Amino acid sequence: MKRRFWLIAVVLLISGLGFAQPKVLPAYTSLGVTTGKAGGSLTLSLASAPQTFFYYGAIDSAIQNLANQMFDGLIEYNLANYQIEPALATRWTITDSRVYTFDLRRDVRWHDGRPFTADDVVFTYTQIVANPEARGGDAANFEGVKIEKLGDFRVRFTLPKPAPAFIHYMRLPIMPKHKLLPFSQEGGKPRAEINSAWPTNVNPEEVVGTGPFRLRSYTAGQQVTLVKNPNYWKRDAAGNPLPYLEQLQYLIITDSQARVAQFLAGNIGQINITGAEFPDLKRRETQGAPFRVVQFRALFGSPPHIGFNYNAKNAELANLFKNSDFRRALQFAVNRERIIEDVYNGLAERASYGVAPLSEWYYPEVARLQGRFDLNAANAALDRLGLRRGPDGIRRLPSGRPLEFTLTYGSNSAVFTAIATILQSDFQRVGVKVNLQGILAANLLGTGRGADWEAILLALGDQPDPELRTPIWKPGGALYYWHQATQPTTPTGQPQFNNFLPWEREIYDLWERAASTTNFTQRKALYDRWQAIAAREAQVIMIAKEYAVGAVSNRYGNYIYSLGVIPGFNPVPLMFQR
Protein backbone atom coordinates (compact mmCIF):
# COMPACT_ATOMS: atom_id res chain seq x y z
CA MET A 1 0.00 0.00 0.00
CA LYS A 2 2.83 2.42 0.92
CA ARG A 3 4.54 1.65 -2.43
CA ARG A 4 1.31 2.45 -4.28
CA PHE A 5 0.95 5.85 -2.59
CA TRP A 6 4.66 6.56 -3.27
CA LEU A 7 4.13 5.85 -6.99
CA ILE A 8 1.06 8.10 -7.09
CA ALA A 9 3.07 10.89 -5.47
CA VAL A 10 5.88 10.50 -8.03
CA VAL A 11 3.41 10.56 -10.91
CA LEU A 12 1.76 13.71 -9.54
CA LEU A 13 5.15 15.36 -9.05
CA ILE A 14 6.25 14.56 -12.61
CA SER A 15 2.88 15.71 -13.93
CA GLY A 16 3.19 18.98 -12.05
CA LEU A 17 6.67 19.56 -13.41
CA GLY A 18 5.34 18.92 -16.87
CA PHE A 19 2.79 21.67 -16.49
CA ALA A 20 5.24 24.15 -14.92
CA GLN A 21 6.34 26.46 -17.71
CA PRO A 22 8.98 28.94 -16.59
CA LYS A 23 10.30 31.13 -19.37
CA VAL A 24 14.05 30.92 -19.83
CA LEU A 25 15.40 34.17 -21.26
CA PRO A 26 18.00 34.32 -24.03
CA ALA A 27 21.60 34.93 -23.00
CA TYR A 28 21.56 38.44 -24.53
CA THR A 29 25.34 38.41 -24.85
CA SER A 30 25.13 41.06 -27.58
CA LEU A 31 23.72 43.41 -24.94
CA GLY A 32 26.50 42.63 -22.49
CA VAL A 33 24.23 40.64 -20.16
CA THR A 34 25.98 38.30 -17.72
CA THR A 35 24.73 35.93 -15.06
CA GLY A 36 23.89 38.06 -12.06
CA LYS A 37 23.79 37.34 -8.37
CA ALA A 38 20.74 37.33 -6.16
CA GLY A 39 20.17 40.00 -3.54
CA GLY A 40 20.55 43.72 -3.17
CA SER A 41 18.28 46.63 -3.93
CA LEU A 42 17.96 49.38 -6.53
CA THR A 43 16.66 52.90 -5.99
CA LEU A 44 14.97 54.61 -8.94
CA SER A 45 12.89 57.77 -9.28
CA LEU A 46 9.42 58.81 -10.34
CA ALA A 47 8.75 62.27 -11.75
CA SER A 48 5.35 62.40 -10.06
CA ALA A 49 3.39 60.61 -7.37
CA PRO A 50 1.13 57.80 -8.60
CA GLN A 51 -2.52 58.78 -8.93
CA THR A 52 -3.57 55.16 -8.37
CA PHE A 53 -2.11 51.66 -8.17
CA PHE A 54 -4.61 50.42 -10.75
CA TYR A 55 -2.97 50.58 -14.17
CA TYR A 56 -6.23 51.21 -16.03
CA GLY A 57 -7.59 53.73 -13.54
CA ALA A 58 -5.69 56.73 -14.93
CA ILE A 59 -3.40 57.77 -17.76
CA ASP A 60 -0.48 58.26 -15.43
CA SER A 61 3.24 57.85 -16.15
CA ALA A 62 4.01 56.88 -12.55
CA ILE A 63 1.69 53.87 -12.45
CA GLN A 64 2.82 52.90 -15.95
CA ASN A 65 6.40 52.68 -14.68
CA LEU A 66 5.40 50.76 -11.58
CA ALA A 67 3.09 48.43 -13.51
CA ASN A 68 6.03 47.24 -15.64
CA GLN A 69 7.44 45.64 -12.49
CA MET A 70 4.20 44.35 -10.96
CA PHE A 71 2.24 42.97 -13.91
CA ASP A 72 2.73 41.07 -17.15
CA GLY A 73 1.02 40.84 -20.52
CA LEU A 74 0.40 37.88 -22.78
CA ILE A 75 3.30 38.96 -25.01
CA GLU A 76 6.43 41.06 -24.56
CA TYR A 77 9.36 42.41 -26.57
CA ASN A 78 12.70 40.69 -27.03
CA LEU A 79 15.29 42.96 -25.41
CA ALA A 80 17.75 42.65 -28.31
CA ASN A 81 15.67 42.80 -31.49
CA TYR A 82 12.32 44.22 -30.25
CA GLN A 83 10.43 41.30 -31.79
CA ILE A 84 7.27 40.03 -30.12
CA GLU A 85 7.68 36.87 -28.08
CA PRO A 86 5.65 34.89 -25.50
CA ALA A 87 5.08 36.14 -21.97
CA LEU A 88 2.01 34.91 -20.03
CA ALA A 89 1.01 33.23 -23.28
CA THR A 90 3.29 30.42 -24.43
CA ARG A 91 2.09 30.33 -28.03
CA TRP A 92 -0.67 31.61 -30.30
CA THR A 93 -2.23 31.04 -33.67
CA ILE A 94 -3.88 33.53 -36.03
CA THR A 95 -6.61 32.23 -38.32
CA ASP A 96 -8.10 34.18 -41.24
CA SER A 97 -6.36 37.32 -39.93
CA ARG A 98 -9.22 37.67 -37.40
CA VAL A 99 -9.11 34.82 -34.89
CA TYR A 100 -6.32 34.89 -32.27
CA THR A 101 -6.03 31.85 -30.01
CA PHE A 102 -3.60 31.95 -27.08
CA ASP A 103 -2.31 29.09 -24.95
CA LEU A 104 -1.46 30.39 -21.49
CA ARG A 105 1.49 29.66 -19.28
CA ARG A 106 0.68 27.16 -16.54
CA ASP A 107 1.82 27.29 -12.93
CA VAL A 108 1.96 31.08 -12.85
CA ARG A 109 0.79 32.49 -9.52
CA TRP A 110 -0.52 35.87 -8.51
CA HIS A 111 1.44 37.54 -5.74
CA ASP A 112 -1.06 36.22 -3.19
CA GLY A 113 -0.59 32.62 -4.35
CA ARG A 114 -3.79 32.27 -6.38
CA PRO A 115 -3.32 30.62 -9.81
CA PHE A 116 -3.36 32.69 -13.00
CA THR A 117 -5.91 31.33 -15.50
CA ALA A 118 -7.91 32.20 -18.58
CA ASP A 119 -10.54 33.77 -16.31
CA ASP A 120 -8.10 36.58 -15.54
CA VAL A 121 -7.41 37.23 -19.23
CA VAL A 122 -11.08 37.29 -20.22
CA PHE A 123 -11.91 39.51 -17.23
CA THR A 124 -9.10 41.97 -18.02
CA TYR A 125 -10.14 42.48 -21.61
CA THR A 126 -13.94 42.38 -21.23
CA GLN A 127 -14.35 44.26 -17.96
CA ILE A 128 -11.42 46.68 -18.09
CA VAL A 129 -9.67 47.16 -21.45
CA ALA A 130 -12.94 47.15 -23.45
CA ASN A 131 -14.75 49.16 -20.79
CA PRO A 132 -15.39 52.65 -22.25
CA GLU A 133 -15.49 54.10 -18.74
CA ALA A 134 -12.03 52.82 -17.73
CA ARG A 135 -9.82 55.89 -17.86
CA GLY A 136 -6.78 53.91 -18.98
CA GLY A 137 -8.67 51.38 -21.10
CA ASP A 138 -8.84 51.08 -24.87
CA ALA A 139 -12.48 50.36 -25.67
CA ALA A 140 -12.33 51.76 -29.21
CA ASN A 141 -9.86 49.11 -30.35
CA PHE A 142 -11.92 46.29 -28.85
CA GLU A 143 -15.30 47.27 -30.23
CA GLY A 144 -16.95 44.16 -31.66
CA VAL A 145 -14.17 41.84 -30.44
CA LYS A 146 -15.48 38.57 -29.00
CA ILE A 147 -13.34 37.25 -26.12
CA GLU A 148 -13.83 33.64 -25.02
CA LYS A 149 -12.43 31.19 -22.52
CA LEU A 150 -11.72 27.86 -24.24
CA GLY A 151 -10.35 26.17 -21.15
CA ASP A 152 -8.44 27.05 -18.02
CA PHE A 153 -5.36 27.92 -20.10
CA ARG A 154 -6.69 28.91 -23.50
CA VAL A 155 -8.46 32.06 -24.72
CA ARG A 156 -9.69 33.22 -28.10
CA PHE A 157 -10.19 36.71 -29.52
CA THR A 158 -12.40 36.94 -32.61
CA LEU A 159 -12.20 40.27 -34.41
CA PRO A 160 -15.00 41.70 -36.58
CA LYS A 161 -12.40 42.48 -39.26
CA PRO A 162 -8.64 42.03 -39.71
CA ALA A 163 -6.48 44.28 -37.55
CA PRO A 164 -2.78 43.76 -38.31
CA ALA A 165 -1.53 45.48 -35.16
CA PHE A 166 -3.89 43.64 -32.82
CA ILE A 167 -1.16 41.37 -31.47
CA HIS A 168 0.54 44.39 -29.88
CA TYR A 169 -2.48 44.95 -27.64
CA MET A 170 -1.70 41.63 -26.00
CA ARG A 171 1.17 43.26 -24.08
CA LEU A 172 -1.38 45.10 -21.90
CA PRO A 173 -1.10 44.10 -18.22
CA ILE A 174 -3.34 41.26 -17.10
CA MET A 175 -5.27 41.96 -13.89
CA PRO A 176 -6.47 39.54 -11.17
CA LYS A 177 -10.17 38.78 -11.45
CA HIS A 178 -10.42 37.57 -7.86
CA LYS A 179 -9.32 40.99 -6.59
CA LEU A 180 -11.07 43.32 -9.05
CA LEU A 181 -14.40 41.55 -9.62
CA PRO A 182 -16.13 43.63 -6.86
CA PHE A 183 -15.30 46.82 -8.83
CA SER A 184 -16.55 45.56 -12.19
CA GLN A 185 -19.78 45.44 -14.14
CA GLU A 186 -19.62 41.65 -13.94
CA GLY A 187 -19.51 42.08 -10.17
CA GLY A 188 -22.68 44.19 -10.25
CA LYS A 189 -21.17 47.69 -10.25
CA PRO A 190 -21.49 50.53 -12.80
CA ARG A 191 -18.79 50.45 -15.46
CA ALA A 192 -17.09 53.59 -14.12
CA GLU A 193 -16.63 51.95 -10.71
CA ILE A 194 -13.57 50.10 -12.02
CA ASN A 195 -11.61 53.37 -11.77
CA SER A 196 -11.95 53.34 -7.99
CA ALA A 197 -9.97 50.11 -7.60
CA TRP A 198 -6.67 50.24 -5.73
CA PRO A 199 -6.44 53.90 -4.68
CA THR A 200 -3.08 55.02 -3.34
CA ASN A 201 -4.19 54.40 0.27
CA VAL A 202 -5.07 50.76 -0.50
CA ASN A 203 -3.67 47.94 1.62
CA PRO A 204 -0.59 46.87 -0.41
CA GLU A 205 -1.60 43.21 0.04
CA GLU A 206 -4.61 43.88 -2.19
CA VAL A 207 -2.47 44.93 -5.17
CA VAL A 208 -1.40 41.64 -6.72
CA GLY A 209 0.14 40.91 -10.09
CA THR A 210 2.20 38.22 -11.75
CA GLY A 211 5.24 40.46 -12.24
CA PRO A 212 8.77 40.27 -10.83
CA PHE A 213 8.02 42.62 -7.94
CA ARG A 214 5.05 43.31 -5.70
CA LEU A 215 3.94 46.38 -3.77
CA ARG A 216 5.30 46.56 -0.23
CA SER A 217 4.48 50.13 0.83
CA TYR A 218 3.74 53.67 -0.27
CA THR A 219 4.62 56.83 1.63
CA ALA A 220 2.39 59.45 0.05
CA GLY A 221 4.28 61.86 -2.15
CA GLN A 222 7.66 60.46 -1.10
CA GLN A 223 8.41 56.89 -2.10
CA VAL A 224 7.07 53.55 -3.35
CA THR A 225 8.71 50.29 -2.29
CA LEU A 226 8.43 47.04 -4.25
CA VAL A 227 9.84 43.70 -3.14
CA LYS A 228 10.85 40.59 -5.04
CA ASN A 229 8.23 38.08 -6.13
CA PRO A 230 9.90 34.81 -5.04
CA ASN A 231 7.63 32.79 -7.36
CA TYR A 232 8.25 34.74 -10.56
CA TRP A 233 7.93 32.63 -13.70
CA LYS A 234 11.09 33.73 -15.51
CA ARG A 235 14.63 32.32 -15.38
CA ASP A 236 17.89 33.64 -16.72
CA ALA A 237 19.76 31.79 -19.47
CA ALA A 238 21.52 29.64 -16.86
CA GLY A 239 18.22 28.66 -15.26
CA ASN A 240 18.54 30.91 -12.20
CA PRO A 241 15.32 32.47 -10.87
CA LEU A 242 14.59 36.10 -11.61
CA PRO A 243 14.55 38.85 -10.56
CA TYR A 244 17.99 39.05 -8.98
CA LEU A 245 17.21 42.13 -6.87
CA GLU A 246 15.34 41.81 -3.59
CA GLN A 247 13.86 45.31 -3.60
CA LEU A 248 13.07 48.30 -5.80
CA GLN A 249 12.58 51.68 -4.18
CA TYR A 250 11.15 54.63 -6.12
CA LEU A 251 11.78 58.12 -4.78
CA ILE A 252 9.27 60.72 -5.98
CA ILE A 253 11.33 63.66 -7.25
CA THR A 254 9.44 66.06 -9.48
CA ASP A 255 12.37 68.28 -10.46
CA SER A 256 14.74 66.91 -13.11
CA GLN A 257 17.78 68.73 -11.72
CA ALA A 258 17.05 67.34 -8.26
CA ARG A 259 16.94 63.82 -9.73
CA VAL A 260 20.39 64.29 -11.27
CA ALA A 261 21.70 65.65 -7.97
CA GLN A 262 20.37 62.59 -6.12
CA PHE A 263 22.01 60.32 -8.69
CA LEU A 264 25.36 62.10 -8.34
CA ALA A 265 25.07 61.78 -4.57
CA GLY A 266 24.65 58.02 -4.94
CA ASN A 267 21.09 57.98 -3.64
CA ILE A 268 19.63 56.78 -6.95
CA GLY A 269 21.11 53.87 -8.89
CA GLN A 270 19.82 54.67 -12.36
CA ILE A 271 18.15 57.63 -14.09
CA ASN A 272 16.82 58.46 -17.50
CA ILE A 273 18.33 61.78 -18.56
CA THR A 274 17.95 64.32 -21.32
CA GLY A 275 20.37 65.54 -23.92
CA ALA A 276 20.67 68.73 -21.87
CA GLU A 277 22.02 66.73 -18.94
CA PHE A 278 24.22 64.45 -21.03
CA PRO A 279 27.42 66.56 -21.43
CA ASP A 280 28.00 67.12 -17.72
CA LEU A 281 27.37 63.49 -16.80
CA LYS A 282 29.46 62.20 -19.70
CA ARG A 283 32.32 64.50 -18.68
CA ARG A 284 32.12 63.19 -15.13
CA GLU A 285 32.13 59.61 -16.41
CA THR A 286 35.30 60.18 -18.46
CA GLN A 287 36.93 61.77 -15.42
CA GLY A 288 36.36 58.63 -13.41
CA ALA A 289 32.94 59.07 -11.83
CA PRO A 290 31.47 55.71 -10.71
CA PHE A 291 28.73 55.49 -13.31
CA ARG A 292 28.14 54.84 -17.00
CA VAL A 293 26.18 56.97 -19.49
CA VAL A 294 24.58 55.42 -22.58
CA GLN A 295 22.58 56.75 -25.52
CA PHE A 296 20.63 55.21 -28.41
CA ARG A 297 18.45 56.46 -31.23
CA ALA A 298 14.99 55.88 -29.84
CA LEU A 299 12.28 53.71 -31.37
CA PHE A 300 9.96 54.58 -28.50
CA GLY A 301 9.92 57.75 -26.40
CA SER A 302 7.76 60.85 -26.50
CA PRO A 303 8.71 63.73 -28.82
CA PRO A 304 7.28 67.10 -27.74
CA HIS A 305 4.94 69.08 -29.96
CA ILE A 306 2.97 72.32 -29.86
CA GLY A 307 -0.76 71.71 -29.76
CA PHE A 308 -3.22 74.53 -30.43
CA ASN A 309 -6.71 74.37 -28.97
CA TYR A 310 -9.02 74.38 -32.00
CA ASN A 311 -11.88 74.92 -29.54
CA ALA A 312 -10.27 77.61 -27.40
CA LYS A 313 -12.66 79.68 -25.29
CA ASN A 314 -11.47 82.81 -27.11
CA ALA A 315 -13.39 82.50 -30.40
CA GLU A 316 -10.91 84.61 -32.36
CA LEU A 317 -8.01 82.43 -31.26
CA ALA A 318 -10.03 79.25 -31.93
CA ASN A 319 -10.67 80.34 -35.52
CA LEU A 320 -7.01 81.16 -35.96
CA PHE A 321 -5.80 77.91 -34.38
CA LYS A 322 -8.07 75.89 -36.71
CA ASN A 323 -6.55 77.63 -39.73
CA SER A 324 -3.78 75.50 -41.24
CA ASP A 325 -2.21 78.61 -42.80
CA PHE A 326 -1.69 80.07 -39.32
CA ARG A 327 -0.16 76.88 -37.94
CA ARG A 328 2.09 76.57 -40.99
CA ALA A 329 3.19 80.18 -40.54
CA LEU A 330 4.22 79.53 -36.94
CA GLN A 331 5.90 76.29 -37.96
CA PHE A 332 8.36 78.41 -39.98
CA ALA A 333 9.23 80.15 -36.69
CA VAL A 334 10.13 76.91 -34.89
CA ASN A 335 13.91 76.58 -34.89
CA ARG A 336 14.21 72.81 -34.55
CA GLU A 337 17.92 72.78 -35.38
CA ARG A 338 18.67 75.20 -32.54
CA ILE A 339 16.52 73.21 -30.13
CA ILE A 340 18.26 69.97 -31.10
CA GLU A 341 21.70 71.52 -30.59
CA ASP A 342 21.10 73.83 -27.62
CA VAL A 343 18.50 71.89 -25.65
CA TYR A 344 19.31 68.28 -26.53
CA ASN A 345 23.04 68.80 -27.19
CA GLY A 346 22.66 67.11 -30.54
CA LEU A 347 21.10 63.97 -29.05
CA ALA A 348 17.82 64.29 -30.95
CA GLU A 349 16.47 64.40 -34.49
CA ARG A 350 13.45 65.81 -36.28
CA ALA A 351 10.22 64.09 -35.29
CA SER A 352 7.26 62.74 -37.18
CA TYR A 353 3.76 61.86 -36.01
CA GLY A 354 3.42 58.76 -33.82
CA VAL A 355 6.37 56.90 -35.37
CA ALA A 356 10.10 57.44 -34.90
CA PRO A 357 12.50 58.17 -37.76
CA LEU A 358 14.06 54.82 -36.82
CA SER A 359 10.77 53.02 -37.49
CA GLU A 360 9.91 51.13 -40.66
CA TRP A 361 6.68 53.18 -40.72
CA TYR A 362 8.43 56.54 -40.93
CA TYR A 363 7.69 58.64 -44.03
CA PRO A 364 10.93 60.44 -45.04
CA GLU A 365 9.11 63.32 -46.76
CA VAL A 366 7.79 64.57 -43.42
CA ALA A 367 10.85 66.73 -42.77
CA ARG A 368 10.51 68.46 -46.15
CA LEU A 369 6.79 69.07 -45.66
CA GLN A 370 7.39 70.55 -42.22
CA GLY A 371 9.82 73.03 -43.72
CA ARG A 372 12.81 74.78 -42.21
CA PHE A 373 13.24 77.66 -39.81
CA ASP A 374 12.59 80.80 -41.85
CA LEU A 375 11.38 83.96 -40.11
CA ASN A 376 10.91 85.76 -43.43
CA ALA A 377 8.55 83.03 -44.60
CA ALA A 378 6.72 83.12 -41.26
CA ASN A 379 6.27 86.90 -41.45
CA ALA A 380 5.08 86.75 -45.06
CA ALA A 381 2.54 84.02 -44.23
CA LEU A 382 1.18 85.97 -41.27
CA ASP A 383 0.94 89.09 -43.44
CA ARG A 384 -1.14 87.16 -45.98
CA LEU A 385 -3.56 86.31 -43.18
CA GLY A 386 -4.10 90.02 -42.63
CA LEU A 387 -2.52 89.95 -39.19
CA ARG A 388 -0.81 93.36 -39.29
CA ARG A 389 1.65 94.60 -36.69
CA GLY A 390 0.66 97.29 -34.24
CA PRO A 391 2.91 100.11 -32.97
CA ASP A 392 4.33 97.74 -30.34
CA GLY A 393 5.38 95.19 -32.99
CA ILE A 394 2.67 92.71 -31.98
CA ARG A 395 0.22 91.68 -34.67
CA ARG A 396 -3.45 92.44 -34.30
CA LEU A 397 -6.43 90.12 -34.52
CA PRO A 398 -9.43 91.17 -36.67
CA SER A 399 -10.99 92.69 -33.53
CA GLY A 400 -7.95 94.90 -33.05
CA ARG A 401 -6.77 93.03 -29.95
CA PRO A 402 -3.11 91.93 -29.81
CA LEU A 403 -2.32 88.46 -31.14
CA GLU A 404 -1.23 86.77 -27.95
CA PHE A 405 -1.89 83.43 -26.34
CA THR A 406 -0.74 81.37 -23.39
CA LEU A 407 1.60 78.41 -23.93
CA THR A 408 1.35 75.85 -21.12
CA TYR A 409 4.47 73.75 -20.51
CA GLY A 410 6.07 71.52 -17.87
CA SER A 411 8.01 73.87 -15.64
CA ASN A 412 9.68 71.03 -13.69
CA SER A 413 11.28 69.78 -16.92
CA ALA A 414 14.52 71.49 -17.96
CA VAL A 415 13.86 70.44 -21.56
CA PHE A 416 10.31 71.79 -21.72
CA THR A 417 11.36 75.03 -20.03
CA ALA A 418 14.18 75.61 -22.50
CA ILE A 419 12.00 74.81 -25.53
CA ALA A 420 9.20 77.07 -24.30
CA THR A 421 11.63 79.95 -23.81
CA ILE A 422 13.04 79.56 -27.34
CA LEU A 423 9.55 79.43 -28.84
CA GLN A 424 8.47 82.51 -26.92
CA SER A 425 11.48 84.45 -28.21
CA ASP A 426 11.17 83.38 -31.86
CA PHE A 427 7.40 83.87 -32.01
CA GLN A 428 7.94 87.37 -30.66
CA ARG A 429 10.21 88.02 -33.67
CA VAL A 430 7.27 87.41 -36.01
CA GLY A 431 4.89 89.56 -34.01
CA VAL A 432 3.17 86.90 -31.92
CA LYS A 433 3.17 87.39 -28.16
CA VAL A 434 3.38 84.20 -26.10
CA ASN A 435 2.73 84.14 -22.36
CA LEU A 436 4.29 81.15 -20.64
CA GLN A 437 2.38 79.18 -18.01
CA GLY A 438 4.31 76.48 -16.18
CA ILE A 439 2.68 73.45 -14.55
CA LEU A 440 3.92 70.04 -13.48
CA ALA A 441 4.78 67.98 -16.56
CA ALA A 442 2.70 65.10 -15.16
CA ASN A 443 -0.40 67.32 -15.42
CA LEU A 444 0.07 68.37 -19.05
CA LEU A 445 -2.05 65.66 -20.64
CA GLY A 446 -4.88 66.17 -18.16
CA THR A 447 -4.78 69.89 -18.87
CA GLY A 448 -4.81 69.31 -22.63
CA ARG A 449 -7.83 67.04 -22.35
CA GLY A 450 -9.67 69.82 -20.54
CA ALA A 451 -10.94 73.08 -22.01
CA ASP A 452 -8.97 75.75 -20.15
CA TRP A 453 -5.86 76.19 -22.30
CA GLU A 454 -4.85 77.88 -25.54
CA ALA A 455 -1.58 76.29 -26.66
CA ILE A 456 0.41 73.54 -24.96
CA LEU A 457 3.84 71.94 -25.17
CA LEU A 458 3.13 68.25 -24.75
CA ALA A 459 4.83 64.93 -25.50
CA LEU A 460 3.02 61.76 -26.59
CA GLY A 461 4.78 58.46 -27.18
CA ASP A 462 5.80 56.75 -30.40
CA GLN A 463 4.97 53.08 -30.92
CA PRO A 464 6.20 50.22 -33.15
CA ASP A 465 2.96 50.27 -35.17
CA PRO A 466 0.96 53.42 -35.93
CA GLU A 467 -2.33 51.70 -35.10
CA LEU A 468 -1.29 51.63 -31.46
CA ARG A 469 -1.55 55.42 -31.46
CA THR A 470 -5.10 55.47 -32.86
CA PRO A 471 -6.62 57.34 -29.88
CA ILE A 472 -4.12 60.17 -30.46
CA TRP A 473 -3.83 60.65 -34.20
CA LYS A 474 -7.17 59.48 -35.58
CA PRO A 475 -9.61 62.42 -35.49
CA GLY A 476 -12.28 61.88 -32.85
CA GLY A 477 -9.99 59.69 -30.74
CA ALA A 478 -9.99 59.86 -26.95
CA LEU A 479 -6.61 61.61 -26.96
CA TYR A 480 -7.20 63.79 -30.02
CA TYR A 481 -7.14 66.62 -27.53
CA TRP A 482 -6.44 69.63 -29.79
CA HIS A 483 -9.82 69.37 -31.54
CA GLN A 484 -12.17 67.98 -28.91
CA ALA A 485 -15.27 68.95 -30.92
CA THR A 486 -14.56 65.89 -33.09
CA GLN A 487 -14.82 63.49 -30.14
CA PRO A 488 -17.97 61.46 -29.45
CA THR A 489 -20.49 62.94 -27.02
CA THR A 490 -20.80 59.55 -25.29
CA PRO A 491 -18.06 56.98 -24.55
CA THR A 492 -19.41 54.50 -27.10
CA GLY A 493 -20.66 57.03 -29.65
CA GLN A 494 -19.40 57.95 -33.09
CA PRO A 495 -17.07 60.92 -33.69
CA GLN A 496 -18.80 64.21 -34.44
CA PHE A 497 -18.12 64.12 -38.17
CA ASN A 498 -19.91 67.42 -38.73
CA ASN A 499 -17.10 69.14 -36.83
CA PHE A 500 -14.30 67.53 -38.87
CA LEU A 501 -12.15 69.77 -41.02
CA PRO A 502 -11.83 68.38 -44.59
CA TRP A 503 -8.30 67.13 -44.09
CA GLU A 504 -9.32 65.50 -40.79
CA ARG A 505 -11.95 63.47 -42.61
CA GLU A 506 -9.30 62.35 -45.08
CA ILE A 507 -7.03 61.25 -42.22
CA TYR A 508 -9.94 59.45 -40.53
CA ASP A 509 -10.69 57.48 -43.69
CA LEU A 510 -7.01 56.56 -44.11
CA TRP A 511 -6.90 55.20 -40.56
CA GLU A 512 -10.09 53.23 -41.12
CA ARG A 513 -8.62 51.55 -44.19
CA ALA A 514 -5.20 50.93 -42.63
CA ALA A 515 -6.71 49.28 -39.57
CA SER A 516 -8.02 46.36 -41.63
CA THR A 517 -5.38 46.15 -44.38
CA THR A 518 -3.08 43.19 -43.79
CA ASN A 519 -0.65 43.80 -46.67
CA PHE A 520 2.37 45.68 -45.30
CA THR A 521 3.09 47.65 -48.48
CA GLN A 522 -0.50 48.83 -48.72
CA ARG A 523 -0.63 49.76 -45.03
CA LYS A 524 2.66 51.62 -45.33
CA ALA A 525 1.28 53.68 -48.23
CA LEU A 526 -1.80 54.61 -46.20
CA TYR A 527 0.21 55.66 -43.16
CA ASP A 528 2.66 57.56 -45.38
CA ARG A 529 -0.28 59.53 -46.72
CA TRP A 530 -1.48 60.24 -43.16
CA GLN A 531 1.95 61.54 -42.11
CA ALA A 532 2.12 63.69 -45.23
CA ILE A 533 -1.25 65.32 -44.51
CA ALA A 534 -0.41 65.84 -40.83
CA ALA A 535 2.86 67.55 -41.80
CA ARG A 536 1.29 69.59 -44.59
CA GLU A 537 -1.52 70.83 -42.36
CA ALA A 538 0.71 71.25 -39.28
CA GLN A 539 -1.91 69.26 -37.36
CA VAL A 540 0.32 69.88 -34.37
CA ILE A 541 3.86 71.23 -34.68
CA MET A 542 6.32 68.44 -33.95
CA ILE A 543 9.58 69.61 -32.34
CA ALA A 544 12.21 66.87 -32.02
CA LYS A 545 12.70 63.19 -31.23
CA GLU A 546 15.13 62.79 -28.34
CA TYR A 547 17.50 59.86 -28.17
CA ALA A 548 17.15 57.40 -25.30
CA VAL A 549 19.81 58.54 -22.82
CA GLY A 550 20.41 57.06 -19.40
CA ALA A 551 22.97 56.75 -16.64
CA VAL A 552 23.58 53.87 -14.23
CA SER A 553 25.80 53.44 -11.20
CA ASN A 554 28.72 51.02 -11.53
CA ARG A 555 27.22 49.19 -8.57
CA TYR A 556 24.75 47.55 -10.98
CA GLY A 557 25.11 45.16 -13.86
CA ASN A 558 22.94 44.24 -16.86
CA TYR A 559 21.61 47.74 -17.48
CA ILE A 560 19.74 47.91 -20.80
CA TYR A 561 18.15 51.11 -22.07
CA SER A 562 17.83 50.76 -25.82
CA LEU A 563 14.06 51.31 -25.77
CA GLY A 564 13.29 52.95 -22.47
CA VAL A 565 10.41 52.23 -20.11
CA ILE A 566 7.42 50.94 -22.05
CA PRO A 567 4.86 48.17 -21.47
CA GLY A 568 6.19 44.85 -22.67
CA PHE A 569 9.87 45.89 -22.52
CA ASN A 570 11.25 45.28 -19.05
CA PRO A 571 14.96 44.55 -18.49
CA VAL A 572 14.93 45.37 -14.75
CA PRO A 573 14.60 41.70 -13.63
CA LEU A 574 18.04 41.10 -15.20
CA MET A 575 19.72 43.94 -13.28
CA PHE A 576 21.79 42.97 -10.26
CA GLN A 577 23.83 44.64 -7.55
CA ARG A 578 27.53 43.85 -7.83
TrEMBL record:
Gene3D superfamilies: Dipeptide-binding Protein, Domain 3 (3.10.105.10), Periplasmic binding protein-like II (3.40.190.10)
Pfam family, one: SBP_bac_5
GO CC annotation: ATP-binding cassette (ABC) transporter complex; periplasmic space
Domain Solute-binding protein family: 83-464
Keywords linked to the UniProt accession: Signal, Transport
One GO biological process term: peptide transport
Top-rank taxon, per record: Bacteria
GO molecular function: peptide transmembrane transporter activity
Family statement: Belongs to the bacterial solute-binding protein 5 family.
Name used for this protein in its record: ABC transporter substrate-binding protein
The species this protein was found in: Meiothermus ruber
